[in-house]
Automatic annotation (TrEMBL):
One of its GO terms (molecular function) is heme binding. It is a multi-pass membrane protein. Its main location: membrane. This is C-type cytochrome biogenesis protein CcsB. PANTHER family: CYTOCHROME B_B6 PROTEIN-RELATED, HEME EXPORTER PROTEIN C. One of its GO terms (biological process) is cytochrome complex assembly. Residues 113-322 form the Cytochrome c assembly protein domain. GO terms for cellular component: plasma membrane.
Amino acid sequence: MPIDSNIASYSDLAFKSAIVIYALVWIMLVWQFALTRTVPTTTRQLVTAGGGSDTVDELPADVPGKVTPRGVERPFPERLGNMAFAVLFVGFGVHAASIVLRGFATHRFPLGNMFEFISMATAAAVGLGLVLLRDQRYRAMWSFLLVPVLILLFLAGTKLHVDAAPVVPALKSYWLPVHVTVVSIGSGVFLVSGVASLLFLYRIWQPAGAESDNIFGQLARRLPDAQLLDRLAYRTTIIGFPIFGAGVILGAIWAEAAWGRFWGWDPKETCSFIAWVLYAAYLHARATSGWRDTKAAWINIAGFVAMLFNLFIINIVVSGLHSYAGLN
């Protein structure tokens, strides 16, 4: 069927609009960061009926993670953060619409090249973030998660963008939506996990209550503590590991149908397997005494680096049976 150029143009417009909205959300969150106080917890003395006194913590209304009770006017930084989160939902909806419209325009699943793959993977990352990072304790992470999302979308929309077109003959298979959709979702989940581990290492360097007085300490005070970040990285990897593993297995089944063998150590197959093994090693290290915390986090980051290497270097630089997954 011919490409519907009108729908394709709407898809491209929605894609660009999503980038603008995500950038606006990032600016709003950075603004909130700048306005949010990072003073330490203060205390006050309460005198009880029996004459004793209790010491309780009192947080200013505009410190990170502070939720204003109902009936009390919320400070501007908190309202700004809530507005940013609401706009983020709009951006995700526009982003998802661009993917759906691309599919309608091409009469296929929009997963036939790097541009479409990155769009799907980043949408999965944002969608997962909207579920897992909705808690006020994690809201500050969005300022960091949106950075790689925006970079990837910018590269996809400029250097890697291709006009809507039919897929190459090698991809005309019912395995395309099954295999590539699962892999792209797993990749998006690993994006969230990688950012969480990076922030965890940063928080270890600037531990809660012992942050330095420079800008690095000021930045760290706005983040969740190290344990929360470590748990988030672990939880997201547990989600992404079986999804990505299923994608690799489905790819092997497709390879047997297309090339007559399940596995041939093609560069993309090999790099995907290495990434999967690294994430398996992270999950094992995370549960092993002596390897938890920083050592495990570095393994998780190594897995994410392998994913990026697989996406850009293997697809663009290295030739192999998956070369059609590059810029065409």
